[in-house]
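# nightly structure sweep
# worker-07 picked up a monomer target from the shared queue
# config: single-sequence mode, recycle default, output format = structure tokens
# input follows
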Amino acid sequence: MSERVTVQPLETGAIWRVTFGVPPGNILDRATAHELAETFHEARKDPSVKAVCLEGAGEHFSYGASIQEHLPDDVALLLASMQQLVAAIIDSHLVVVSAVRGRCLGGGLEIAALGHRVVAARDATFAQPEIALGVFAPIGSIVLAPRIGQAAAEDLCLTGRTIDVDEAGRLGLVDEVATGDVMEAAVRWATVHCTPRSARSLRYAVQAVRAHLAARVHTELPDLTRLYLDGLMSTADAVEGVQAFLEKRPPVWSNE
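# output follows
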């Protein structure tokens, strides 16, 4: 479909295998987020699509949103593109299966966690590490709790720690650890559980079970984005954390 997103229709078009990003990190910059959002818009328009199986290209799911685009001149546009991507996934009303291998970090974790089912490889690791850069995760602050509970979501968002696939399974972040190819396992689940169903009925069912999450995304996420831009980004530490990461040095916090 584009240079950053490829689509392979399976099961006579009922399942879309969607691969995004540029290896090794499949960074979610504005361009990639926009093209992935457009893919979900196109899938929504096709009445035969029942499920999207989503993977990052190569050995990893995604290292997360672009750090370069977190600097003051670009961050508003980056947050807008990520917000539009989340809305496109939610509003597609399609079953989404996330196929995760390797690193699944930051914005990558936020997108993977939107999957109705998360299938992971044994080597998968997960983290919401924004706090280490002196920033926070607006999307993760909303989408993680419905999947893993408020306490676990707060733990990941406030510590930035990395968890392995076993802990992710215990938390409910991962539904299945694949013994073979992770995308094959994701497609197999979608084939068994989605292809026998009515595409129209599935979309209404997705809309129903995601009603509360959709409401939060559309009403609370803009508020958190304003908190990020008008509050956090007015502090010295938010800029220092991002610059330190880009310069490969420890941050020096002013705590102001």
